[in-house]
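Q: My labmate handed me this sequence with no annotations at all. I'd like to see what the chain might look like in three dimensions before we decide whether it's worth expressing. Could you predict it?
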Amino acid sequence: TWWIMTLQPLTPVNCASLLQPGCSLLQLDGEILLFGQKGWPKRLCPTGIFGVRFKNGEMKLRAISFSNDSSYLPPLRCPAVCRLDPYDGLPETYLIHGGRTPNNEISSCLYLLTMDSRGCNRKLVLKCKEKELVGEVPGARYGHAMSIVQSRGKTACVMFGGRSYIPTGERTTERWNSVVDCPPQVFLFDLEFGCSSAHTLPELSDGQSFHVALAREDCVYFIGGHSITSDSRPPRLFRLRVELLQGSPLLSCETLDSGLSISSAIITRTGPSHRYIVLGGYQSDSQKRMECSTILLDEKGIHIDHLEPPRWTPDIIHSRTWFGGSAGDGCILLAVPTEGRPSQPDVHYFYHVSFQQEKEYSEEERTQACSQESTDYENSTPLEDSEELYFGREPHELENSSDDEGDTYNEEDEEDESQTGYWTKCCLGCQVNPNTWEPYYSTELHRPAMIFCSKGEGGHWVHAQCMELSETLLVKLSQGSKKYFCLDHGGLPYQEMTPPRQVIPVRRTPMKVKDRNGAFMFKMSPSKKSFFKRLFD
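A: Here is what I predict for the chain of 537 residues:
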């Protein structure tokens, strides 16, 4: 099959600094979502997940909210992400495991991300739940891969590869943040009960990370990957077959030929069939993989063919690194660094790469689509934001509707937290300095704990540490519904004040003198009494 590829430059609208290498693009309920933003989430989007919109050569982000009963999902770089299609009444779900936080901590948690609801204006509300695994649980890691397999009417998740910090007992000052390949074990767990099991296969003798994992029915294919031990990217290709038997599962692995020497590749699906396009990645530490490939999974196995890449721009050709993700069927968001050019205000150049079959084009359209300078985006996969489709509006009103500028994320709208918010001067004796602050309570992570003072009509926020609150009392006040008044406005409410400590007098038993017959009387003359009185006075 012949493919037509377009490479369209994108202009990020006040959102370029949020994208970073290791971020993930998800496709949930028809929307493209950005996960793994740079840094910790801020006020305009506390969830750290954004809806991505491509329109008229521009890229805009919109903050996505979570339901009230959702678990906290930190921004994770290089996690294992896989999509679970709806089955047995369960909704469309994304599984997210591991990854690195902005503090360079490696996570071992498994999260389930689903759509919670859509409002009357089609706003997407997500729901995140942390899934606890039992049994042989995979440790903290990043750069690994997860896939969904189906066998004998059952569904399970396969996890393999990744990197982690060296064991605690082997860490030294010089090698404290050194990473190693995780042991080459295959983890298999079910999503209903969270039972996990580890399997060692002789064919998988070396650890690998940042590889490609594609699944079809009961088979998972591992392609490429990087090994820290050998510092190489061998053209490996493994086929893992999983049989979910009634008792224990049966796993078998086979080494195949015609693999790819690649790591950190971008994969996009081109339709309902198991046909994929591989773009990007690295052949070595100093060489990007400029070629493209198509991968087809069918009953006979896996088929890998070469695909003519688009005409890369000079910025892409000369860049040392690049990253991106799938932005829909046959579409890829590609980012390359500006390489420190002071004339470029943005951190990265962004491109939208789209792949479509040649038979869908006429001769005139083919000429236009092959042109890199073309900015006509109507022929590529539509990625219009579904939020524009409001209920009760006519078709002609939708055509002329605005771009919902009020909902678009804008970095300039973020408040300077060095002057407001958590770092404000809460009282006359406030001692919280954003430059020297360190966590005081166990619940604090990267911001000081605050409590609301109800004095006056509007009230104000104060730092719990400045109010000299104990951690027990802070937790009790945060869980209760009673009003709090800071030290400048009356102190604690009497209902929540710690009751005074009751000092129980110690009962002293007088000593008994052995063989005492009666009271002991000490006779003293008046002159001696006067002398001792003057002495002790």
